[in-house]
């Protein structure tokens, strides 16, 4: 019987003189100690950190559909996700849902220098969007997806309201940005036949007028300014047939619109309608180098947007807040905003000055922080540079190891002993409320990612994608805090790898060019069938131009780039961006540009030293001088090159992938000087042009 079985087990246990034991035999101090131990044990069991529960098996994050082709393990079958909520199939629907679930709560935030954030309610944003949309119709726009409206402005509430105004009446948005250059801007205005552009500043309106005066943009007929327009600008516009309006002039009440024959009824878009034409100078697919003066206009539909924003694997709540500073002219920031709106959350805008971003973040206290890897690298370098004493450095390294040990077991928190002792001050610098950080647009070093996950005590997700698949196609899974990959396919996308024989990548080995198919893949390039065919094959696969590798757990690793590869004279293929990402792990290097060509047998580099680290770094090695003087010192250049070479060797670079000579440049590459794109990617053509003199000189003096 069961009783007999228990008696048999009991007889096998060692005997203890339990009969002689009683609580009454313990001293009062011992009783208090036992009670305290029991209480502490109960407290620890109740409050111990618990690992994040992953939504799927982390050892099988994607499912093979066919050899080298995989889909998300979050899907029940091979049918990809087109929308999450039945009532959110367009960008317009997503905002309307936010309006309902927020109860008219705060939506868009802005601030004046030194002041707290002020908020515009969801209901007010919706009303302003409808009124502005009616005003656009009264100004000659047509309520259909073939009506393209240009927005030429920095991130601010009016940008978002203008976009929603267009969607309220089924019009499509064409974002413009300063770094496109005059020729590219003219190309876009003419290709899209844009008649009306919304601007934030008079200087931008004046630049557009100049093109019109020269006869370069005949279709342009109206400019709407967020700010006041001077009488001189209005008169100048009249002379060349362009009406200059202030935003307040088209923001008139519904009654006034009805008096002008407009019933004021909304005309929301359908999922298949065009939402945005996003112009990019990227080199998707396998064409020859793109002429940056004629960027490609990726046509993104409302269905593309609904599919992509519905595929996120993290939960946004009404209490969440995002900081908007990445350009709204690009899809990454727009997808973040629409995801926030769909759940009734808030978006706070920075003041427009990147040097004040950290102050804006401290004031806003965001819970969601979208970033690009360059910014995370900057935060990483700043944290390391601030630990000047050997004791603090040792303590930081130990604390990071302890937090990383928790991460390896799935625990992410910011209330540990090490957070209180070491990391809370760093976390406070980012507002102190971060729940998650999203990084995309370029690879990030696994070292930096693991370090910041430990230090910041929040979820850091890494994704991969491009404009042509609306934003992301892979995303790291909650609970998987390993580094060195960009996650598994999103539920809206299938991802496959195809052979690149010339680079020795083959799909049978789980390596090849990354191709994407699904409801988030764009319709094609505006009025450009040739380049559309180069990017989209007959089966609907988008060829990214990037090289990936499937890992055993079903995640994707970016291993190379097809976009900017070139051959050295000995026939070796070089992917410079991969090499640059390795060199970025060098503490003293802030930015680096790797150059080579088919007439040379070796690579050279242009590096910008980190001003916050460089002086102390060189002083430790016996060099003195100003930042500029140190950059010009040949011995310093040699020391930096040796450090980069060591980092490159540790990062697995082959000998022919290492730069053999280096020029140190004292000025950062930036959007302002035309060496970075608005998403902070290197403009390789411009970098080559700007540093042509140094490149020629270095090759002329470097022994082969």
Walk me through this protein's architecture:
One of its GO terms (cellular component) is endoplasmic reticulum. GO terms for molecular function: arachidonate-CoA ligase activity; ATP binding. Keywords: ATP-binding, Fatty acid metabolism, Ligase, Lipid metabolism, Nucleotide-binding. The structure is a single chain. The protein has 24 helices and 28 strands. β12 (321-324), α12 (331-342) and β13 (346-349) form a beta-alpha-beta unit. It is α/β, with parallel strands linked by helices and 704 residues long. The strands form seven sheets. A six-stranded antiparallel beta sheet has the order 1-2-19-20-22-23. Strands 6-5-7-8-9 form a five-stranded parallel beta sheet, with helices on both faces. The longest helix is centred in the N-terminal third of the chain and has 20 residues, at 28-47. α3 (91-102) runs parallel beside α12, α4 crosses α5 (157-168) and α15 crosses α17. 37% of the residues lie in helices and 19% in strands. The protein starts with a helix and ends with a helix. Residues 12-21, 255-263 and 282-292 have low confidence and may be disordered. It is globular.
């Amino acid at each position: 019987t069961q009783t007999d079985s228990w008696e048999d087990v009991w007889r096998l246990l060692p005997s203890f003189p339990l009969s002689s034991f009683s609580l009454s035999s313990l001293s009062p101090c011992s009783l208090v100690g036992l009670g305290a131990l029991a209480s502490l044990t109960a407290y620890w069991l109740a409050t111990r950190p618990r690992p994040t529960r992953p939504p799927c098996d982390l050892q099988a994050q994607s499912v093979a559909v066919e050899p080298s082709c995989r889909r998300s393990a979050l899907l029940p079958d091979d049918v990809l996700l087109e929308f999450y909520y039945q009532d959110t199939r367009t960008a317009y629907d997503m905002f309307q849902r936010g309006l309902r679930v927020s109860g008219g709560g705060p939506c868009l935030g802005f601030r004046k220098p030194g002041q707290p954030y002020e908020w515009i309610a969801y209901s007010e944003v919706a009303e302003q969007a409808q009124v502005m949309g009616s005003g656009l119709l009264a100004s000659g726009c047509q309520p259909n997806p073939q009506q393209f409206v240009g927005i030429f402005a920095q991130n601010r509430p009016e940008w978002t309201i203008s976009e929603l105004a267009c969607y309220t009446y089924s019009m499509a948005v064409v974002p413009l940005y300063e770094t496109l250059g005059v020729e590219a801007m003219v190309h876009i205005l003419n290709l899209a036949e844009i008649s009306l552009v919304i601007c934030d500043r008079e200087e931008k309106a004046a630049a557009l007028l100049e093109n019109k005066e020269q006869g370069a943009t005949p279709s342009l007929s109206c400019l709407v300014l967020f700010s006041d327009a001077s009488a001189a600008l209005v008169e100048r516009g009249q002379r060349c047939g362009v009406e200059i309006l202030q935003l307040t002039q088209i923001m008139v009440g519904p009654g006034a619109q009805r008096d002008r024959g407009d019933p004021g009824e909304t005309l929301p878009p359908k999922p298949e309608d065009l939402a945005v034409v996003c112009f990019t100078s990227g080199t998707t697919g396998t064409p020859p180098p793109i002429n940056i003066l004629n960027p490609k206009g990726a046509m993104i539909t409302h269905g593309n947007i609904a599919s992509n924003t519905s595929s996120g694997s993290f939960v946004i709540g009404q209490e969440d807040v995002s900081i908007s500073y990445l350009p709204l002219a690009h899809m990454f920031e727009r997808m973040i905003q629409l995801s926030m709106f769909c759940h009734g959350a808030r978006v706070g805008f920075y003041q427009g000055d990147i040097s004040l971003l950290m102050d804006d973040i401290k004031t806003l206290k965001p819970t969601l922080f979208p970033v690009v890897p360059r910014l995370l690298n900057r935060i990483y370098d700043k944290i390391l540079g601030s630990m000047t004493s050997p004791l603090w450095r040792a303590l930081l390294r130990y604390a990071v190891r302890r937090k990383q040990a928790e991460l390896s077991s799935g625990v992410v928190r910011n209330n540990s002993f090490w957070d209180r002792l070491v990391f809370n001050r760093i976390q406070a610098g980012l507002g102190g409320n971060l729940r998650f950080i999203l990084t995309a647009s370029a690879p990030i070093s696994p070292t930096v990612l693991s370090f910041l996950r430990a230090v910041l005590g929040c979820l850091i997700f890494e994704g991969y994608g491009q404009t042509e698949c609306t934003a992301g196609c892979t995303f790291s899974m909650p609970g998987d805090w390993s580094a060195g990959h960009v996650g598994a396919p999103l539920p809206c996308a299938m991802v496959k790898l195809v052979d690149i024989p010339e680079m020795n990548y083959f799909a049978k080995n789980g390596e090849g060019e990354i191709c994407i198919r699904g409801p988030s893949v764009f319709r094609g390039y505006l009025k450009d069938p040739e380049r559309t065919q180069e990017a989209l094959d007959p089966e609907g696969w988008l060829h990214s131009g990037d090289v990936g590798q499937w890992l055993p757990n079903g995640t994707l690793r970016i291993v190379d780039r097809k976009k900017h590869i070139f051959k050295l004279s000995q026939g070796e293929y070089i992917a410079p961006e991969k090499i640059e990402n390795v060199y970025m792990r060098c503490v003293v290097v802030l930015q680096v540009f790797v150059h080579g060509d088919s007439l040379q047998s070796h690579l050279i580099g242009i590096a910008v030293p980190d001003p916050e680290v460089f002086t102390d770094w060189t002083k430790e090695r016996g060099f003195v001088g100003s930042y500029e003087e140190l950059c010009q010192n040949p011995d310093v250049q040699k020391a930096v090159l040796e450090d980069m070479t060591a980092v490159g060797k540790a990062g697995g670079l082959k000998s022919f992938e290492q730069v053999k000579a280096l020029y140190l440049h004292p000025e950062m590459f930036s959007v302002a000087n035309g060496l970075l794109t608005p998403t902070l990617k290197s403009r390789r053509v411009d970098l080559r042009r700007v540093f042509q003199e140094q490149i020629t000189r270095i090759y002329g003096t470097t022994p082969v």
